[in-house]
Amino acid sequence: MQLVPGAFALGALGKRCRPARRAEEGSTGTGRFTGMQKGYPASMFEGFEVFDIATSGTTIHGRRGGHGPPVLLLHGIPETHLMWHAVAPRLAERFTVVASDLRGYGDSGKPASSPDHATYSKREIALDQVELMESLGYKWFSVAGHDRGARCAYRLALDHPDAVDRLAVLDIVPTADVFRRADKDFVTRFWIWSFLAAPEPVPEGMIGGAPSVIVEHMLEAWGERRDAFPPEVRAEYIEQFRDPATVHAICEEYRAAATLDYQHDEADRGVRRIACPMLVLWSHSGAIAGWRPLEMWQSWADEVSGGPMPVGHFLPEEAPEETARRLTDFFALSEPGR
Q1: Which of the 8 DSSP states describes residue 167?
Q2: Treating both helix axes as pointing N-terminal to C-terminal, what angle do 202-209 and 211-222 enclose, rounded to 10 degrees?
Q3: Could you tell me the pLDDT band of residue 28, with boundaries at 50, 70 and 90?
Q4: Which uninterrupted H or E stretch holds 263?
Q5: DSSP string of 267-328?
Q6: Which carries the bigger pLDDT value, residue 330 or residue 9?
């Protein structure tokens, strides 16, 4: 693992494939931005440093800020690490917060896919995040994930139990359980699962023709608060879907979910358990609300707490204060001295 040139510079997140510019005097690391400033306000993630770190499989982009025990934040679809913009600063008052783009998303790397989709399995995506945290000096940390990031987070806890202190998953149940329980309501409301997992190049080609359509559908159909996504944030989510490499990577991640991720879960069922304490939060109106999420997770972990929140799917963006409070209370119980 190595630090990519231009990493750990204070400033705004940069666009890929544009020339770098000098950071202002006093910035950290190499003293260079990772690229040109994006369109959202500089006040978002104020005081956080930007990084691009090479792992054994790709390069991971993100931000770090705050002081205290380390906490890793992982985003869902159609988002990037920007989804934590209202939660991360609140957590940074008590923790060292690392918010990263998953492999294939945002400004993280997009390695070549493989016929079996292994490149984008949660096992590989989780390994990226473990290596990222090790590069930053954290061998023991807590992790919170939303949606796809939550799937990465629980796989990380299963595969790397010595690395995870506490685990929070937002609005998911295990991937294999989703496929076991999916019914007519699920497949009609959340057809994204099968659409994005369809053979290449069908979803890639259709999304490429109108990238804003699928992003707007996700934000509007899954959320309850229409004002949860400022225009500049919404524009950033749409922008990543204009990149064919990103779209292909995201489709591969869904193909891996329907194949390898499902197989990995079934292989672990009743054999391996999540060793750390878990916090489970979910939307009161979402697809899993009627599935008794706590009971489902109790079959995977010994210590599980949590409950529903009165918002739609995008908990960190629809209810940032409550999400930050719940995560702070949970992570504050972290075992000291590890």
Answers
A1: E
A2: 90
A3: very low
A4: helix 262-268
A5: HHTTT--B-S-EEEEEETTSTTGGG-HHHHHHTTBSSEEEEEESS-S-HHHHSHHHHHHHHH
A6: 330
Active site residue 313: yes
Active site residue 147: yes
Whether 18 contacts 34, CB under 8 Å: no
Task: Look at domain 2-331 and name its CATH class.
Answer: alpha beta
- Domain extents for the chain? 2-331
Mean pLDDT for 46-59 is: 96
Q: Of 52, 128, 147, 171, which is the active-site residue? A: 147
Identity of the amino acid at 334: S
pLDDT for res 335:
58
Q: Which amino acid type is present at position 40? A: Y
Parallel, antiparallel, or unpaired for β 9-10 and 59-66? unpaired
Contact 9, 45 (CB under 8 A): no
Rounded CA gap, 144 and 127, in Å? 15
Cα 198 from Cα 58, distance rounded (Å): 25
Q: Residue 11 above 90 pLDDT?
A: no
